[in-house]
Every structure is written in C-alpha cells, then in structure tokens.
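Two folds, back to back.
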Amino acid sequence: MAVFADLNLKKGSDTKALKGLLEEAAHLGFSIVAINHVVDFKEKKQEIDRPIVPSELFSSLPIVQGKSKPIKILSRLTLIVSDPSHCNVLRATSSRVKLYDIVAVFPKTEKLFHVACTSLDVDLVCISVTEKLPFYFRRPPINVAIERGIGFEISYSSAIKDSTMRRYTISNALSLMQICKGKVCLYSEKPLEIRGPYDVANLGLLFGLSESDAKAAVSTNCRATLLHGETRKTAFGIIYTTKKPRTTEEDDSVPACKKAKCEN
C-alpha cells in the first residue's frame, strides 16, 4: 500500500485549528504531512521562525486510518520571492532555514522562476495556476530543475470550487505537465478544501497526469522531495547517510573484523 503525503498544511496562529487539521489529515489516510511556514518578504515584519515541534501539539500523535501507525509530522519553509534580493536568505548559511525539513520557493517573475530552477538550493518550486501567468513555462529551466531533483507544486483547490478559476487551473497545469514529466506534488490551499489522497489522485487526471503519475503526486513524488531535503543537508546533496539500527543480540565485546568474518 502506498504511503501518502500532504506537504503543505499551512501554519496559522490558531494552534487548536492546526491540531484539528493534522487529525483530519491522519483520518483521510495521509501518513506524512508537513506544517508549512510561509514568509512573504513584501509584508512587513516577516521573519523566519523556528519550526513547530510535534510534541508541542500532541502528547501522542494521531493514528493514520488504515495504517495503525502514528502520522509523521515534518516542517516546511516556503519563501515568496518577488525580487532577486529575497533569495539571499537561501544563499546564505541561515541557521533558521536549516532547521526545516523542506524548503520551497514561490517565484513571482519569470527571471526568479529561472533562478529557482537552476541555482537555488530548494526542494520545491511552487506555481500559482489560479490566474493567468505573467510568463510561459520554458523547457530548459524545468529540465535543469528535474535533473537537480527539484519538484514542482500546484494547488488543486481552485479546480473544485470555481468555474473560472478551474479553467485557468486546468490550462496552466496542462502546460506545466507537458514539460515537467509528472514531477509534481498536489496540495490544498485551505483546510476546508483538503481531500483524501485517492480523490486528489483523481483530480490529477484533469491536469493531464496519467493514472500512475497522479498517484505519485501524493506519494512517491512527495517521498522524493523529502529525500532531497535530507540530502540537501548532507554534503550539498551528494551523500545520504542513515544509521543502521543496533540489535540486542549484538555483542560489543567482539571485534568488528571478527563480526565481518562471521557474517561472511
């Protein structure tokens, strides 16, 4: 059974509402979610706060429906950039940025979209499909982003609530899907518009995704984004390390060389 993920549960000022949203995601069958802290540099007093620790919200995590396992809660930072200077926080070694599991960027111009795809150290590039875009999607920067392991993200909310926005959403999504080879993640903009993973996969068919790519948009593509976020913190994405769990049967008194011989 696939592991489904929603990497864009927006952080708000209401902690109780956020807890309810996480519980709803677990009930719908999402095994992995990311609490998204959005920073818009156009607004005043926008700072990068520390990510929320799950233990601050729950004493025991909600159980995922059909899995009998607790939901995994990660942290995400999304920067809305409309000027090249806004990207400096990503180029600098910001300790706050490194605290987040996923780093995404929302470019507002074609130039910044090109920079995000080709040079910024991020995991996701967000794209607004609810309005007429000020630029066309070009194949070269998108291909570079795919080669770098960067995914794209679009919202499916507008496709279920308004006929005018639905036309823009489907049209823009189809233009993107023709180039990005299905390397996209889908999310809901508002808590009340969140849908189950299989419903989201069905909506992906409207965006020109194949059945397998639509399912990947809420599963394997999200997992690839999480892995990219982990490798981004280790040797600039070249090396990924994992600890081998120790068993109680292992005897620390036996030298490593003898253990290797016994295993062989």
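---
second:
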Amino acid sequence: MVCLTIDLIAKSRNHFKKKRGLSFPEYLKTLTHLHFSSKNIEDIGNLSMCRNLTVLYLYDNQIAHIHNLDFASNLTHLYLQNNSITHIDNLSNLQKLSKLYLGGNRITVVEGLEKLCELEELHLENQRLAPGEKLLLDPRTLLSLAESLCVLNINNNNIDDIRDLTVLKELQQFSAADNKLHNMEELEDVFSHWPQLLQMDLSGNPVCKKPKYRDRLITTCKILEVLDGREINELTRQFLINWKASKEAKKKKNSKHMMSGPLISYPLTNDFNMGQVPHPGHIHSHADMQRWSLQHSLRARKLTIPVCGLLSHVAVSSPVCSHVDA
C-alpha cells in the first residue's frame, strides 16, 4: 500500500531539492504545494511538518478516507477527484479552504462541510453511485455555505430535485448537467433566489425538452451570460423580458375587467309580492309561461301605487316593467 508520508516526499525528485544551508525539516516548512497525483496512493500519512501547505494535489489515486489533514490550517485548494472516497470527513480544521474537488468518488451524501465558511468552489460531479442511488446534499451543509459558495458542480449524479439548493444565494456558476431534473416551475423558483448567477449548465436533463425552456430561464435569471454552453444575447434577453412583462400586464388587465364587469339583472321574485318568475336558464313549458303571466297580471292590478315607481331603485328585467306599464 502506498502512503503519502514525509519519506515519500523526501524520495520525490520533484519536491526535495536540498539547498545549501537548508535542512530537510526546514525545507518542509517552506512547502506550499504538494503534487502527488496518479501515484497509486491509498492513504494519507503524517504530514504535519508541512505546516504552510496551501495546495495539495492528490487526484487520480486510490484514497478511500480523508484524514491526517488537521495540521493544514493554511490549505486553500484540495484536489481529491477520482479516488475511492465514500464519506467527507475530517475537514473541519481547513477553515481557509476555498476550492474542494471531490468529483469521481463514491460519495452519496454531501456533509461535514459546516466549518468551511470560506469555501467558494465545490466540485462533486460523476460520483460512482450504486444503481438507483442519487447524490444527496445535507441541508445543514448547504446553509453553512450559503454566504460563500460561488461555484457548484453536481453533474451526472441522478439528481431530480434541487429545492434544497435555494439557500445558495451567492452562486455564480452552477453545473447540473446529465441529471434527472424535470420540473420547470421548481427550477424557476430556485433560480429566482440566485441573483448573482452568470453561468449555468443543465444540458442532458429532461427539463431541457420543455416548451420555452431556454426563454423561461433567461427571463428568470436576470444577469445570466451562458446557458448550456451558449452565450445569451442581451437584445434577446431584453425582448423576452419585455414580452413577459407585456403578457403579465395584459393578463392582469383582463382579470381586473372580469372582476369589475356589469351586474346581471334578474326578474323580481315573490319577495316583492310580484309572484315567481321563470328562473334564468330554466326551461319552462308553454303552460307554465301562461300561468305565470296571468298571475303576474292579476297581482299587479291589486297594487294601489305604481309598480315602476316602487321599484325605481331596483334592477328590473324588461319583461316586468313592460307588462306593468301596459
């Protein structure tokens, strides 16, 4: 088993170039970058003497566990993509970490990043998941990254829901290509909470086949510059925004007109001793109509004051008034 240790660094020609008057321990203290990618490394040993390490390249190895990095409080970049990592552990002390690369591992739940308040980039693409599994992101981790995270890559992880990502209001670049996103309304709602978004890639998702997919996202993301690898023309954006505003204004106007439309007048009921009238929309026989007309005429003659005067403030249908006036 190959383990990354001080001895391995000493044996590496790329790193230890002993200078006159500089001992190996002193040299280790000056190290800021370690390059150990594609070295069949399976474990990380004690590197505590490299206290000024800022960038660590360990991609394309066989590392299964993240540990022994507590000493690296100055680390800003950590490259661990294409290993065999299943859990994100032991990163709490890396509070200056700004870029974390974990793509191509076996991670199922993104967690354990609550202390990384300066993390700006998180790369989690292409996890080697079991059939039927999808990458999950712990809401506590997302909330802790809400003020700092600017770049998120979750490509190809069987993800079908991103509502929990709404809190990431500082995102500028978002990649979620080749997933299972399908709900257009959900995406519009989430993206409306990301006012800084400049670049986005959703290619390869079912939602891309929805009508007006591109137009709707351009109007939702006000300053988006690139969508699915294609630049957004500013004139096109302005046209779509104006068209959407005009459509919504017209819809609002029509709704207001319907609410304030004319009142429909109905014939009087027997509340005014005028007898019952045919109900609107009801089908009556010829005999019914003759009986109602006779009753209406007889009762109208018994009144001692003019009916139209009595009902001057009541909406009366034309058949009633014309009959009485006659």
